[in-house]
Here is the input.
Amino acid sequence: MTGFARVDGMEAGYRWVWEAKSVNSKGLDLRFRLPQGFDYIEAVARKRAAEIFARGNLSINLALQRPKKVPALEINRDVLEKMMTLAAEFRGSREAVYVESLMGLRGVIEVVEEETEAEELVAARDAAVVTSLEDLLSELAAARLGEGERLAAVVEEHISEIEGLTSQVAALAKLQPERCKARLTEQLDELLDGDSPVSDERLAQELALIVARGDVREELDRLVAHVAAARELMT
Here is the structure.
């Protein structure tokens, strides 16, 4: 079954969007595209998808936007003190040294690397991402089921039409022997100008051959069996 689902979420400053697409396939084929650092979710997603779906080619993608953080700046006071002392030697006193002019020197102001995120925030984010995944798979299953129900109605309509036509042909097939006999008799009368030297026995033999060649009862029986099998598959 084909289907599409989309679920977004937000937690701990992160924003994300799950998307899943499904197309027909004889087996279950799962493909994932996840951001760096979220590979561990693939194992969870594969397990849950296999529990929900038996067939289909599924593409599951996670797009994640990380929180923007303003870089922190820190003054290296040891370096600044050394620079001021050195500058004071040339200026004659520390009062003559402008601190602002020293701030632009390499090593005085440092960019502090981001600290590792708190474990509780990471755990909350990961739990929310997995919950969104569950919602995504549920929505995809509902989309596939909805398509299946719509297709079932179309297939049922075709099955009913085939069943009705089969019944009509079966009714007409019962009239075939008499019609063949009447037509054969009419053709013989036309050829022989009403003088029929053909015996009734010979006429019956020819009629039996014609009816046998045109007998469609076996095909009708097959159609009846196919209709029954199709209905059984639909239940």
